[in-house]
Amino acid sequence: VVTVQPLGEDDALVAVLSNDTGEDWSTTVHARRLSYAGTEHAGIRAEVTVPARGTVRVALDPSVASPDVATHEFVIVDADEARGARYFAEQRDSALPAHAVHVATAAAPGGTAVTLTAEAFVRDATLLVDKVSPHAQASYALITLLPGESATILVRHEGETLDAVGVRYKGSIG
Hints:
Layout: E1 2-7, E2 12-18, E3 25-35, E4 40-50, E5 55-59, H1 62-65, E6 73-79, E7 82-87, E8 101-108, E9 111-118, E10 122-125, E11 137-138, E12 143-145, E13 150-156, H2 164-171
Antiparallel strand pairs: 1-2, 2-5, 3-4, 3-6, 6-7, 8-9, 9-13, 10-12, 11-13
């Protein structure tokens, strides 16, 4: 798990990596300050090892942790498949682009694999699958995607494979 949090008296941003497994986790941390349009303004990389069932804090350089325009930028930290984000402004005050997400579906064991591909920045995408099928459950929610990135979510349900139009419009992408 990766989170980005203010820490200490000066509220300096740190990336906190938590390892809930029984093995040490060695990874490269990539922290970036990006615009919602996808432009990288600053970035750092650090090699870390998180002990089994432990946490490690990585201080973020002020160039990453301080925005030029708070309503247009955010910090994202990636470590292997884990991702954390910190926004400088509330969502309602942010200059977020309009959602532009391509949705594709395919049959999968136990349900439907739904792949979301972002054409623009997507903050906290969630499939509201209970609108399509009352007992459906999505394997992931609150997914942040950068332009060009994809994520596949397993929607567990009974019956026929869900179609992309139904997921996108009846089910909604929030």
